[in-house]
Amino acid sequence: MSTHARPLAEWLSEASDADLATLFAARRVRPDAGWQDFFDAAEALLDPASIARILPMLTHSEATALHAAASGTAPAKESSEREALTRLALLRPDGTPFPPVQTAVAERDAPEPLRAAEPEPAHEADAAHAAERAFTTVAALADLLLLARERPFALLTGGTVSAGEKRMLAEAGIPAESIDALVTIALDADLAAPIDRRLGATDHTEAWLRSPVGDRWSVLVAGFRDALPRGIRMENGGWVATTAWPQAHPWDAAWPERSAALLERARLLGLIADDGREPAWAAPLRRGAEADATALTSLLPAEVDRIFLQNDLSAIAPGPLAPALDVRLRTIATRESAAQASSYRFTPESIAHGLVVGETEESILEFLEDLSLTGIPQPLRYLVSQTAQRHGLVRVSTDAETGRTRIESTDQNLIEAMAVDQGLRSLALAKHVESLSTRVGRDTVYWALTDARYPATLVDHDGTPLTGERNPITTTSVPAAVDHGPLIAALRSHQGPDADAAWLDRELEAAVRAKAVLRVTVGMPDGSTRELILEATGLGGGRLRGRDRAADVERTLPVSSIRAASVIPQ
User: Fold this and answer.
1) Which residues form the Helicase XPB/Ssl2 N-terminal domain (predicted)?
2) pLDDT digits over 313-345, tens only?
3) CB-based burial of residue 461 (10 Å sphere; 0-12 exposed, 13-18 middle, 19+ buried)?
4) pTM across the whole model
5) Which helix (H) or strand (E) holds 137?
6) Which of 199, 289, 337, 480 has its CA 20 to 30 A from that of 347?
7) Phi, psi dihedrals of residue 431, rounded to the nearest 5°
């Protein structure tokens, strides 16, 4: 039992529930911690392992103040850092560190003086380059989210995208070296979320994909800023100068790598230029203002809302196509190149994909008619018509009587082809009159047939076509805060009126468990006191048992008569 735990236990018992909840959250205390009383809490918070976990989380100013307090050079006056360290149970109210904290801090170097200077404005050419890079980042992230919407990415145990998925993304034109940063930016902006070890789109993704580039960028930088660690973020919502980021958490061994990743994400978002200077649109954000993309978008090429449709089933956008139009066009066409002038190509598979997600022949032709500067070429009109006619030749439904999935078609050649298709063996298809049936679920069968390029459609029991939704979006929600209320209530319930007696009981229990030698001060009936040296052997029924070293006899002392007890080091 450490003697320095008692003052902390008393401070904890006098603290408000709100202060305790803040402390336990900051120290990452489990809500189901097996603490019986505030003495247990104090012992756990002063445990070397607990202290080792909190020190890397300290900001540069907090680490500097704590090191100064541990070395005896801290100023006597109050400071925000001193108050913060007291609330973290690292300093006593008088500003001195608890002994275990002092021991832990003595093993660490004092943080170097902070090197932070007001950022210099970026030169015009560098600002233009930063704006172009931000535009490229927004476009690449849109590509990534469109792919994730169609097929969520597999994640490794650590939450990163697997190497195989990265290769697939790189083949799709997304810079391989930026994939991890793009995924983190999407997570911070709540545009992607992991579920069941897969990374998919959220309920905010669709609106973001269809927003203008300025709004897209604003959402990304707002998410980036909100996710910054507290060593970087300022109370007004902004951030400290980027030159100070590498020193923000001086006692965190992983911080150099983490700060480098943060700076790279800031660079990708156009918040810092390549030489470290600050573009005009980043300065208000740094000071805590809301994102304003006006200055950035003024340096970008204007978006267009028309395309050229050509006889070879391709389309050319003479500039960056407006995002809402681009997203819809890419449901019925494959983008072949991405630049200021993008190109797209129509294929039977791309048109079929649009039909699967809810387009019709009429809606496709109407959309292209409005979008095209050159009308719809006859080959494209024919492709859309032919694909729409074939779509739905294979109908997938659930048999109401047997509960099995049924596959039907007016083209028996298709039925015969599916029955012998080796790529569909996993479905275990069985002939049933002029149809096929399987125990595999309807949706799984439908998407297997679609992947195998059969003109399948989902229908309900009345034969009404259903729109297939392969990967439902992930509904995001704010993570519930850890509730320390029950733990605090349990600690309060064991809070007795006599702290001295409670502390003495704990000291005696610890001494008995450790078979320690105690120096015991006992109150005598005549009001005097007597000091005994006992080898503690047992405690129970309100009595302490031990061997009196001086008299070499066993003694049993009423705990109520013991005025003080301390362990004698052996």
Assistant:
1) 308-430
2) 999 999 899 999 999 999 999 988 876 678 999
3) exposed
4) 0.80
5) helix 124-150
6) 199
7) -70, 140
Structure-token pair, residue 154: 């597999």
**Among 89, 22, 95, 37, which Cα is nearest to 65's?**
95
Alpha carbons within 13 A on the beta-carbon side of 174? 25
Domains of the chain: 5-106 (no CATH), 124-297 (no CATH), 308-382 (no CATH), 394-466 (3.30.780), 496-567 (2.30.30.100)
- Confidence tier at 479 by pLDDT (50, 70, 90): low
Query: E-strand spans in 3-159?
Result: 153-154
The three-state DSSP-derived secondary structure of 449-473 is HHHCCCCEEEECCCCCEECCCCCCC
Other C-beta atoms lying within 10 Å of the C-beta of residue 78: 10
How are strands ordered across the β-sheet holding 192-195?
153-154, 198-201, 192-195
**Inter-residue contact 520 to 558 (CB < 8 Å):** no
pLDDT at 1: 44
Nearest-Å Rg of the Cα atoms of the chain is 35
- SS3 string, 323-336, reads HHHHHHHCCCCEEE
With left for phi above 0 and alpha for psi between -120 and 50, is residue 462 left, alpha or beta? alpha
**What is the distance, to the nearest Å, from the Cα of residue 143 to the centroid of all Cα atoms in its chain?**
21
| Strand segments (E) across 338-448 | 343-345, 394-398, 405-409, 430-432, 435-438
Residue 381 tokens read as 């009109």
Listed in order, strand segments (DSSP E) in 410-499 are: 430-432, 435-438, 456-459, 465-466
Q: Does residue 396 sit in helix, strand or coil?
A: strand
Has residue 467 got a pLDDT over 70? no
Q: Distance between alpha carbon 36 and the CA centroid of its chain, in Å?
A: 33
